[in-house]
Amino acid sequence: MQRPPPRGVIDPLYALARARRESAGGAVAAALAELDRFGVERAGIDVGDDPELAHAALASHPARFFARTEVDPRRGMEELRRLARLARELPLRLVTASPARLFVPVDDKRFYPVFAACAERGLAFCTSLGVPEEPVPFSPQKVERIDAVACDFPELRIVMRGGCEPWPALAVTLMRRHTNLSLVSGPLPPSELPAELLAFANEDGAHQVLFASGERASRERFYKELLELRLAPPARRRFARDNAARILQLR
Questions:
Q1: Pick from 165, 182, 175, 159: which is nearest to 68 by CA?
Q2: Could you give the domains of the chain?
Q3: Number of other residues whose CB lies within 10 A of the CB of residue 75
Q4: What does the DSSP 8-state code read for residue 221?
Q5: Among 26, 109, 207, 213, which residue carries the largest CB count within 10 Å?
Q6: DSSP 239
Q7: pLDDT tens, position by position, 195-216
């Protein structure tokens, strides 16, 4: 009999991985132990990184894991059919994108069928914005580009990923402008959230900023800093859990 999950943190960008020669079952058990240790109620896992492991986790513990997938709009109808299949077969809640890595601006027309598919199927769309760490042109991820998307798809729940550097103030302005726009902290550690975003999360934007962890090697730091973040208790609960539950439509 499965234990009920703790009502604590929802981590939509959890990096589920296994050690070398580790079985899928062993990796899932290790992940559950970690989630329990840090009070993580539910974790969103990428079904593309290790499909066998992801499917094992989703099938054996549907109350703890939900699915996300990285999208490539350059694949056209093939990608739309893949999203439709995943939405039918798995508890898919989040579609992610890295425009700079794809060399496709987030407001490019090739993304628009993806936006329409997400809106129709009730999936949230999460995009990296701001200057990326990789040595690739940052123009596809200028924060201003998400404004047109939010205008054209008011029903689409759009999540900006990271600190949106060097434009966090613009990100805050756009979230005040668009009720369907929010921001997830990962892969930025909580202590490195820009002051503008932290203030917004603690005040009128408490319902639009949510937590996520980072890579497996640094994940303990993320959960520790979440507890130390200077947020009022109601804002902290929204940041750690409630906003993700609402935006991702988790039941």
A1: 159
A2: 72-247 (3.20.20.140)
A3: 13
A4: H
A5: 213
A6: I
A7: 999 999 999 999 999 999 987 7
Full DSSP string of 225-242: HHHHS---HHHHHIIIII
User: Two tokens at 160?
Assistant: 């900006």
Q: Which residues contact 97 (CB under 8 A, 6 or more apart)?
A: 70, 71, 73, 106, 111, 114, 125, 126, 127, 128
Residues in a beta bridge with 183: 160, 209
The neighbouring-strand residues paired with 209 are 183
- pLDDT in the model for residue 48: 93
DSSP 8-state assignment for residue 42: E
Higher pLDDT, 104 or 21: 104
* CA 194/CA 136 separation, integer angstroms: 23
The arithmetic mean of pLDDT across residues 67-87, rounded, is 98
Cβ atoms of 43 and 13 closer than 8 Å: no
**Arithmetic mean of pLDDT, 237-251:** 95
**Parallel, antiparallel, or unpaired: how do β-strands 124-128 and 158-161 relate?**
parallel
Are residues 234 and 206 in contact, defined by beta-carbon separation less than 8 angstroms? yes
Instruction: State residue 5's pLDDT score.
Output: 46
CB 57 within 8 Å of CB 45:
yes
Q: What is the pLDDT of residue 162?
A: 85
Judge whether residue 4 has pLDDT over 50.
no
Q: Which of 187, 251, 195, 189 is nearest to 222 (CA)?
A: 189
| Cα(147)–Cα(131) distance, integer angstroms | 17
Please list, in sequence order, all residues whose beta carbon lies within 8 angstroms of the beta carbon of residue 76, skipping any fewer than 6 positions away: 110, 113
